[in-house]
Task: inverse folding
């Protein structure tokens, strides 16, 4: 097995960098190829059919880079297309829903869990199903929070505007007595401070990004695909729209410089 091959990751745009950051932390030795479909973001407001089509196109591109594992970093794409992608490829595929759901189940003491995400993620019921498949007695309260994505993209991750919006959205869920809240969207980990303030310290926030990075390590290890040599680590980025904004906002998400980035055209013919 050539375990020096890169890990392929795709997201609808910049948000998946929260997952990539955790991959860098968890697996610093591994090379990565990140694809951000910036020309077609956001996925969270689109139909499952459209998101699935986009996911297949992203997968085909990453396959051309000879990856050893595919990570669907986008919660929306994981919610609606993970199974179809898994069934169509011969390498392991890791999504963000199951790792987040597992962590939520281990976290909750009172069996009341909240889930927030994009409209498409919440509509798909993916988190509720994943949580209930582990423990059917857990009550799940889910809520779409669509404004959080543009808020984070604007860099308004704290301060009064973020707090008012979070407070308004979370009002309903806050009084359900949940002790665990799943941040079911790539962008939400950047709002942790505000969300924690609004929900109160007793509510445990689950960051799917951290859980997903751990899951990738587990999958690679179980298949003996962890990189063992100490060759150069490649960290390449591809986007479907011009790279300028991605680099500017992305470096903030990632907390480090984006050195290699290229705009590509996806093959939409198949
Ligand atoms: N990446 C998406 C998610 O995690 C958020 C942005 C979008 O709507 O495309 O659901």
Result:
């Amino acid at each position: 097995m050539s375990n020096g091959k890169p890990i392929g990751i795709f997201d609808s745009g910049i948000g998946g960098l929260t997952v990539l950051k955790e991959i860098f932390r968890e697996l610093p030795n591994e090379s990565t190829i990140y694809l951000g479909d910036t020309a077609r973001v956001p996925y969270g407001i689109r139909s499952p059919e459209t998101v699935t089509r986009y996911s297949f196109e992203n997968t085909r591109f990453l396959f051309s880079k000879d990856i050893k594992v595919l990570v669907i970093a986008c919660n929306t794409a994981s919610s609606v297309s993970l199974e179809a992608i898994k069934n169509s490829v011969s390498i392991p595929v890791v999504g963000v829903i199951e790792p987040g759901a597992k962590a939520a189940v281990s976290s909750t003491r009172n069996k009341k869990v909240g889930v927030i995400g994009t409209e498409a993620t919440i509509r798909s019921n993916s988190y509720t199903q994943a949580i209930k498949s582990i423990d059917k007695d857990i009550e799940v309260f889910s809520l779409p929070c669509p404004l959080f994505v543009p808020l984070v993209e604007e860099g308004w991750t704290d301060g009064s505007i973020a707090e008012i919006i979070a407070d308004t959205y979370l009002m309903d869920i806050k009084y359900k007595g949940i002790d665990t809240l799943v941040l079911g969207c790539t962008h939400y980990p950047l709002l942790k401070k505000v969300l924690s303030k609004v929900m109160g310290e007793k509510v445990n926030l689950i960051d799917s990004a951290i859980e997903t990075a751990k899951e990738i390590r587990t999958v690679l290890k179980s298949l003996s695909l962890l990189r063992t040599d100490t060759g150069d680590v490649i960290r390449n980025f591809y986007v479907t729209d011009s790279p300028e904004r991605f680099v500017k906002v992305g470096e903030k998400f990632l907390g480090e410089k984006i050195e290699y980035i290229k705009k590509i055209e996806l093959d939409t013919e198949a």
Observations:
- DSSP finds eleven helices and ten strands in the chain.
